[in-house]
Amino acid sequence: MAFFGYHASHEQFKPSALLEYVKAAHQAGFSGVSCSDHFHPWSDRQGESGYAWSWLGAAMQVTPLNFGVVCAPGQRYHPAIIAQAAATLSEMFPQRFWLGLGSGQALNEQITGDFWPAKTVRNMRLKECAQVIRALWSGETITHYGLVNVEQAKLYTRPATPPLIIGAAITPATAEWLGSWVDGLITISHPEQMLQQVVEAFRRGGGEGKPMYLKVQLSYAQEESTALEGAFEQWRTNIFSSPVLADLRHPQQFEDMAEFVKPEDMYKHIRISADPQQHIEWLRKDIELGFSEIYLHNVNRQQRNFIEVFGKQVIPALQATN
Fold first, then answer.
1. In the chain, N or C terminus with fewer CB closer than 10 Å?
2. pLDDT over 90 (residue 296)
3. What are phi and psi of 251, to 5 degrees?
């Protein structure tokens, strides 16, 4: 049976508001939560960027749901610190946390003032970070010199069962590269053909049989015009190709890129509909592709209505047919 989670967008809402939304999602029948880990939002209109790791401890305490976060170790975060943070959450809340790792965006990572590497180098650095994190979770004392450096680090507080490392990929090429060394995949809701390519690439690269998670970017409201308006207002800066999203440095640059985006362009990138049945049909196709955990991100600001309608109509309909 597919597992449906709520996506907590730290770029769009204050941490205190997100606590209330995850409590509402739990009451409505959602089974888990994913969250972003940003230093900057994608635009000043979104306007928030709470610290995900502080929030996770509070959110996991106020609900019994499973949680996951996608972060980018290697520049803004040293991998030993991510290993410690994830281990602490997993010790307090056993088998309720997964760790998503990606190569990151300059928007968040370049605040250190360090050089922003090319994608190939960022991938190499990411794999090194994952190796360091796993070694620390196993209790080893680590000294490592490479794209990241570690000297005589040992993690003393560790969970009985370490969290899964879920690799984040947008493109088929990255999904294939991740397949052999991550515990699972998380990607976003591309158009169906592209999503199929990402799935096939992950399996081809060694991911056959591993769990696959999907973050669905949608806009639901009681009127389709309102759903479209909300998607355009909040998410038009986020619809560009992976290299653009990775290399721009400041929210204003994303605003400049989006200057010529039209509202109707959003339909190519966001699932926009006021009809719950349409969302059910889209999500059924995701389940058929093999996604076991699907995190629903309503990109407009109407979170309460979305949580209520999807909890009453969409999730039960999908669970009844799986």
1. C
2. yes
3. -55, -35
Residue with tokens 């088929």: 172
Using an 8 Å Cβ cutoff, are 73 and 129 in contact? yes
The torsion of the CA quartet 311, 32, 18, 89, rounded to 10 degrees, works out to 160
Q: Quickly list DSSP for 272-298.
A: E-S-HHHHHHHHHHHHHHT-SEEEEEE
Helix H or strand E segment including 217: strand 212-219
Q: Which residues pair with 98 in a beta bridge?
A: 68
In whole angstroms, what is the distance from residue 309 CA to residue 322 CA? 20
DSSP 271: E
Q: Are 151 and 177 a contacting pair, CB within 8 Å?
A: no
DSSP-derived secondary structure for 18-73: HHHHHHHHHHHT--EEEE---SS-SSTTT-----HHHHHHHHHHH---EEEEEE-B
| Beta pairing, strands 149-154 & 141-145 | antiparallel
Residues sharing a CB contact under 8 Å with residue 131, sequence separation 6 or more, in sequence order:
144
First to last CA, the chain: 5
Of 114, 119, 83, 81, whose CA–CA distance to 102 is shortest? 119
Q: Is 54 exposed, middle or buried (0-12, 13-18, 19+ CB in 10 A)?
A: exposed
Q: Determine the average pLDDT of the residues in 30-37.
A: 97
User: How many Cα neighbours within 13 Å face the side chain of 262?
Assistant: 2
